[in-house]
Each structure stands twice: as structure tokens, then as C-alpha cells.
Amino acid sequence: MTRVKRGVMTKKRHKNILKAAKGFRWGRKNLFTKAKEAVIKAGKYAHRDRRAKKRSFRSLWITRLNIALGLNGMKYNDFIALEGKKSIALDRKVLSQLAVENPEIFTKFVEKVR
Asked: For the chain, does the N or the C end have fewer beta carbons within 10 angstroms?
């Protein structure tokens, strides 16, 4: 059986991990084992926070809507219920943007939903 030298692939894998760990502090940028751990953990944090970002933005939109609706004399949950009954399909992101950028148009929209 022929001999297989494995240095090339190992070097490539190490180089890719160290490249991904660029900018990390202390030994985590240039010691392979620590860099590998740091890159794996960073990937987990990145995945977790991509999911959390969606939740936090939705929360922001709801807060903005609640404030804008309060200025128009309505509560958020009543507005969403009425919107559902009248089958108006505007999501919270669009409504929040409308409330922030065009308050007059948003007021007219709230009156229409009412």
C-alpha cells in the first residue's frame, strides 16, 4: 500500500481556521486549538443572534406602533384585532415605518381601520 502524506490538507484546514479567527485577541488568533474553539463559539453566537435580531426588531415595531396608536386614541391589540377582521394584510414592519415616516397618512389609515 502506498504511503499517504497528510500535511497538505492539515495545513489548509489550519490556515482556514486561523483566517476565520483573524482579529481575535490573545492566543485565539494564532494558536490553532484556541482559534478553533473561538471560531466554533463565534459561529454559535452568530447563529443565535441572527435569530434574536428578528425578535428584537419585531418588538421595536410593536413598541413604535403602540406609541403611534396611542396618539390616535387606540390600543395596539385592538388595532391588530380590527386589522385582522377587516383582512388588511400589512405587517408590523410596514405599519411602523408608516407611523414614523408619514404620521398623517398613518392617522388616515387608523381611521379607515376603525
From this structure: N
Helix H segments across the chain?
7-20, 32-71, 76-85, 92-101, 103-113
Cell of 42: 463565534
Cα separations (Å) of 1 from 4, 8, 34? 9, 20, 36
Question: Out of 1.10.1900.20, 3.30.70.20, 1.10.230.10, 3.30.1360.30, which CATH number does the structure's domain 7-113 have?
Answer: 1.10.1900.20
pLDDT in tens, 84-103: 899 888 899 999 999 999 99
Give the whole-angstrom CA distance, residue 103 versus residue 114.
Answer: 16
d(Cα 14, Cα 59) in Å, to the nearest integer? 41
Q: Residue 23 contacts by C-beta under 8 Å, 6 or more apart in sequence?
A: 29
Domain-wise residue ranges, the chain: 7-113
